[in-house]
Amino acid sequence: MSDMYLIYVWYIVPATILIPVFSAILNYPALTRPLKIIFGFLIFSGIINLVNIIASKNGFNSIALINLYTIFEFIFLASFYSKFFEKKGRRVIAVLMAVFTLLCIVNYLFIQNKIEYNTYTRPLDAIILIVFSLLFIAKQNEDDESWTANKYNWINGGILLYYASCLFMFIFSNYLLVVSKTVTQIVWSIHDTILIFEYILFAVGFSKCRTQQITSTY
Predict the structure, then answer these.
(1) Nearest Cα to Cα of residue 218 among 25, 51, 37
(2) By C-alpha distance, which of 163, 161, 139, 162 is closest to 150?
(3) Cα 123 to Cα 38, 117, 118, 140, 192, distances in angstroms
(4) What is the DSSP string of 35-57?
(5) Which of 4, 43, 69, 138 is packed most tightly, with the most Cβ within 10 A?
(6) pLDDT per residue over 35-66, tens digit each?
(7) What is the pTM of this model?
């Protein structure tokens, strides 16, 4: 792999998570519960990325780590969306979190071998989060507040952008293991660039807490 590609995916992209992290820290006293969940998700993602880089550099298989990340990614983001639903909706999301966790464990242990990407559960994760995102948009359409003024719209926009754009990358990620290195580098470079945009949108969402009066911590 080219040196520039490795620098981009191993150093530049992982480092950009600091943009929303610092934005969250600067505005932490004003963060609502949903935004604190996203902040926690970013901290978790940063730690997993660091461990993954170290493991990859030392020749360790990181598939188990990716499976673990998928579980907690879904739990964090589903928890974020649950804050915008009534009690019945929250119960449904709680059940989905439990079922999805079980599916990930079964898939890793018994269905896909331990050297393949989780191309069954990762796309399912993305599809469910896309649905949550669209439901959130439908719910927010009832609000008269300006789109750009709503901090949650920026967070939701980042989530929708990333998972909708990368869905087919998740589905065909094992295929990328056997195609040319050039194709693989192009695809994952696109993936990582989309991830940067997600982080930027998260950072904007956190920054909106400075200019908004906190009226709810739901």
Answers:
(1) 37
(2) 139
(3) 20, 11, 8, 25, 17
(4) HHHHHHHHHHHHHHHHHHHHHHH
(5) 69
(6) 999 999 999 999 999 999 999 888 888 899 99
(7) 0.93
